[in-house]
Design a protein that fits this description.
This protein has about 140 residues and is mostly helical. It has one domain (about 20-139). About 80% of the residues lie in helices and about 0% in strands.
Length: about 140
């Protein structure tokens, strides 16, 4: 295994700059920004779901949201601990991390939308406008 790592490290030295896009501080910044935005968005949506005290399905939706972002956090943490993030040749892992966070937001947004659609139309409009305003503020 050490031999493989050594060979890949040596090969990384000879790659043109364009092929080693993932390596460097910009990659780490991008991953951290993506993770932070996803957590904020999921936090916003779960906070709104917590406010739906009359909806018995809201707690399940919160659990789904938290589980999705937790999976992304676990994968990011595991790969970071293994030092396989933002290095030459890690483009696949880096893209997987971004994908997991985007999927977490999408999953949570779907859960949120499903729960909002169960509300009376006046409340739907009010909650949707409030969430849109808050989402614009966190971007």
């Amino acid at each position: 295994m050490k031999f493989v790592v050594a060979v890949l490290s040596i090969l990384g030295l000879f790659l043109p700059d364009g092929l080693a896009v993932a390596a460097g501080p910009e990659c780490a910044k991008t991953l951290d920004t993506t993770a932070s935005r996803a957590r904020r968005t999921v936090g916003l949506l779960t906070a709104e779901l917590k406010g739906m005290t009359t909806n018995p399905y809201a707690k399940n939706a919160i659990s789904v949201c938290n589980g999705a972002v937790s999976r992304a956090d676990q994968y990011y943490g595991k790969e970071s601990a293994a030092k396989s993030v933002c290095i030459a040749g890690s483009e696949y892992v880096d893209k997987q991390i971004v994908h997991l966070y985007k999927a977490a937001v999408s999953t949570c947004r779907d859960e949120f939308t499903t729960q909002v659609q169960r509300l009376p139309s006046e409340e739907q409009t009010e909650i949707s406008a409030r969430v849109a305003k808050k989402e614009a503020a966190i971007r």
